[in-house]
Amino acid sequence: MSKEICLYRVSKIKNPDVKLWMCFPSVYSFSLSSLGYLWISKEFDERDDVFVERVCSDTSSTCLSVKELDFIGFSFSFDLDFLNIFKMLDKYSIPLKAEDRDDTFPFIFAGGPVITANPMPYSKIFDFFLIGDSKNVNTTVVDVYKNNRDKTKDEILNILSDIEGVFVPKYPKPVQKSTTTLDCCVYTPIISEDAYFKDTFILEIVRGCSNCCAFCLASYLNLPQRNVELSKIIEALEIGLNFTDKIALLGANVCTHPDIDAICNYLLEKMSKGKKIEMSISSLRADKLSPLIVKTLVRAGCKTATVALEAGSERLRKVINKNISNAQFVDTVRVSRDNGLKGLKVYCMLGLPTETMEDLEDLVKFVKTLKTDFKGFDLSYSFSTFIPKPHTPFQWCAREDSKSLENKQHYLKKEFHKLGLKASFSSVKWDYYQTVLSRGDERLGDYLIEVYKNGANLGAFKNSAKGLLDVSEFVGEFDINSDLCWDIIKVKPEKFALISEHNRLLH
């Protein structure tokens, strides 16, 4: 029998007024490594008046039946999660479209970065959405429901539509993204040997990123950058290290935490006293990777780390607002090698606005120089293609033609092979349809249902649109003065600021 350690108090005397499933659209082992999903489940579970059951795509049996439930919530973190969400709804005989579910069905809702960025493609599927940080919003939703459960589903939805951070497609009105302070350290509430990251204690020390690369949804959707207080990080680490030796620091910009040196020194002191610690960090910014951070990672068992170069030339890096020079990146590689790492995985992107073949030629020249200067140090490269994302300065930009992107990939594969360098590439065709999902509107709902019914492969994505809509309109350039379907979600910086940044970088 697998071992799970629960790090929070669950009331032994439950008197649930509200019963819900928190659903994760993948297998159970992945859910146990999803910090956001586990934390919101914990927040529900800590209430004496709520019974929450965690349900995953591979769950074989449940304590509660659909008819007993008041809510079914879905974590929605990746564009293609909708496929498993549909599969789970089908599994429990729940109609996919909200209009086909009467009052005998529970409320179906979703939250997560995909939904906060643009809920419109899924507006025909869910009854309501949680927009932004879930803290306080989920509590308010439960209380509203408890106080109005004698009303019809439509009447309750109308009331929910007035809550900050809740978007109800049936009663559409502008909704402000919920943004909370990090007054505590969010950490893994359940440690399990069955988790994808086995027995790992994950803690979020930073939310958001102040660097604001112009393509980056994670930066803009979580502004302002918020840092957890050092004392609360240490307190969380003390809890986690009582139960496991494996820790992971999470955040879009971990290296810029004002107390990162103190965190490293705390861990190094623990290890110097004989405490075994294995550590990983989710993101490393190339111009902020200090010798102390690398030494801590190496002392904690890391052999390699991942850094983002993004673009091949300094010119293009300035366009995307990633102001890292070649010299700074060389220093990063040197610091990594000299302080014990065996290699770096370098993340890059193709098809960024204004990119030319000269930028790729500059990249090839640069990686050749790196290989020559750092013989024996393992440098590998990973390439994705640019997907314009809502609420970023590049949200209006077109996605580059697929044939052109494939030609660029072919060029780089050939050149990297000549140099004997390892490089992996994302699928241009799949990235195309992720762009459709990213910037689609409410018309996408029926299309996505057809994609699901037709097998959810690339052929299904291509053929299911016939007679419904032309999905290519979501991948072209958008008029900067036009209304966008996701404008209904109000975030900061506001749209006028994004326009100003767009014009500054591209004109």
CATH topology title of the largest domain:
Rossmann fold
Number of domains: 3
Q: Count the DSSP helices.
A: 18
CATH architecture of the largest domain: 3-Layer(aba) Sandwich
How far do the termini sit from each other?
61 Å
Query: For the report, how would you describe the main beta sheet?
Result: 6 strands, mixed
Describe the structure.
This protein is of the alpha/beta class. It has helices at residues 28-31, 35-45, 81-91, 113-117, 137-147, 153-160, 217-221, 230-241, 260-272, 291-299, 314-319, 326-338, 357-373, 402-419, 428-439, 444-453, 458-463, 495-506; strands at 4-6, 18-24, 50-56, 71-75, 107-111, 128-130, 166-167, 175-176, 190-192, 200-204, 206-207, 226-227, 246-250, 278-281, 304-310, 343-350, 378-385, 422-425, 489-490. It has 3 domains: 13-176, Cobalamin-binding domain (Rossmann fold), CATH 3.40.50; 181-302, 2-Layer Sandwich (Transcription Regulator spoIIAA); 308-439 and 477-507, Transcription Regulator spoIIAA, CATH 3.30.750.200. The protein contains 18 helices and 19 strands. The protein has a 6-stranded mixed beta sheet with strand order 3-2-4-5-6-7. The protein has a 4-stranded parallel beta sheet with strand order 15-16-17-18, covered by helices on one side. Strands 10-13-14 form a 3-stranded parallel beta sheet. α14 (402-419) links the parallel β17 (378-385) and β18. The chain is globular, with a radius of gyration of 23 Å. The mean pLDDT is 95.
Give the arrangement of secondary structure elements.
Blueprint: E1 4-6, E2 18-24, H1 28-31, H2 35-45, E3 50-56, E4 71-75, H3 81-91, E5 107-111, H4 113-117, E6 128-130, H5 137-147, H6 153-160, E7 166-167, E8 175-176, E9 190-192, E10 200-204, E11 206-207, H7 217-221, E12 226-227, H8 230-241, E13 246-250, H9 260-272, E14 278-281, H10 291-299, E15 304-310, H11 314-319, H12 326-338, E16 343-350, H13 357-373, E17 378-385, H14 402-419, E18 422-425, H15 428-439, H16 444-453, H17 458-463, E19 489-490, H18 495-506
Parallel strand pairs: 2-3, 2-4, 4-5, 5-6, 8-19, 10-13, 13-14, 15-16, 16-17, 17-18
Antiparallel strand pairs: 1-9, 6-7, 11-12
